[in-house]
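Field: sequence (string)
Field: structure_tokens (string)

Example rows 1 and 2, in order.
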Amino acid sequence: MDRTLPDEVRSLVEEIERDPQYDADSEPVEASDADAAVEAAVRQILLDMGEDPERQGLRSTPHRIRRMYRELTAGYWVDPDRLVNNAIFDVDYSEMVVVKDIPFYSLCEHHLLPFFGSASVAYIPEGRVIGLSKIPRIVEMFSRRLQVQERMTKQIADFLMERLEPRGVGVVIEASHLCAVMRGVRKPGTIMTTSHVLGLFRTADRTRAEFFSHLERTPPSL
């Protein structure tokens, strides 16, 4: 098969073909002091569990864990200016814009266990709109951090309010928390809902009601 591909397509093909966690060549030749300290801590956790970090299945686990947490917390390193990247446009539109059912995965900062679900974001433009793809990226930026759901909800709303200066913003997040499913109360199926509203969404009952009515509607099938 012809392997002459544009660079962006080639990188996607290589990502699909290779799984770095099982690729011996992906191991760094010499880890930094910080990386080595993290991996040593993971080995100690394995020892405390009564495991043998040198057995075949666990030998590369500290390296995988370090890389995994760097990936899951990549939101700390996102540059908000590069994320927005001039994707705010002057448009004569003043009705509500709603982007809902945005899937996300995050880590609870109390136990480092995942919580995951969906976010719905709405705003009322004041002569400026933001590119559609940017709203899920904003959700991703804040979810890929150690989080509590309440703070994440507020951060998304505040970010849009600051960058877009709309007439109002509303954010609703629904999520399942593994810290409540796997440990503690152990109640599978429990869903936590949080909301944060600013501007007209806070001061105008009809605007807030319209927002929540949009969330109740069944999306069209694709």
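Row 2 begins here:
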Amino acid sequence: MTTALNAAEARAFERAESESLAPAVTRAAAILDVLAEDPSTAFGPSELARRLGLPKSSIANICVALADAGLIRRIGTGFSLGRKLAELGGAYLTAVDIVQEFYEASRVLPTGSEETVQLAVLDGVEMTYLARHDGRQQVRLTSGIGRRLPAISTATGKAALASLDDPELERRLAMISHFPAITPHSHLSLASLQADLAKVRERGYAIDDEETVEGVVCYGIVVPARRPDGPYAASITLLRARASEERVPLLIDDLRWLAGTLSDPLRRSRPQA
């Protein structure tokens, strides 16, 4: 069982708390961490204060607030984790499931598995990258897991934007204040982007034609809605030199199968080479 924080942990905690705009939230998170270390034990405010090196009165007030929210529950004079955490964990695991399914499906793509395959979700006008399968032909990317990139210059982003209905698309595009010239091929105006999105809708997939990294192309397709957030999109990235007329249609076929599989987990037949 963990006792008091060691000196390094205490310094890190104090630094995080001093930098936080809401120290009560930082302390609440620390309380949940302590309770999670030994879920079978109910800890009172005194013990929590001792372990965290914080005033008992502050800990007691935060515990009351956490209990009222259902995040922890009272057991006698102590507290343990609450049922609300299971609900939140279940919501989180729903997102994790699609990531696991992405990795499993990416490995069996006949052509795409050799390249870099990615999964991302639209948040505002940016894409957050959730997962990446690295094939044998790795390329230099700026879209690491957890990284956010402008939707206007990525294949996943343009596929996601093009999937929105017109009112929602207009609302999102109104959020764009400038068009960064990441490469000489990047969109520099709203009109240019809108013309590109119209092409995405027409052909059913998006193209990042060296707009993010010169010498690298990317093809993206939206993942049909399975969750209320998003939309999600998948992409395949490769060197421009490998994007031959014969190879690209095979990659698009792989993307369509991947998107269908992620939208319907029961669809498990392996794509044909």
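free_text_note (row 2): Strands lie at 72-75, 78-81, 116-123, 126-133, 148-150, 206-209, 216-223, 232-239.
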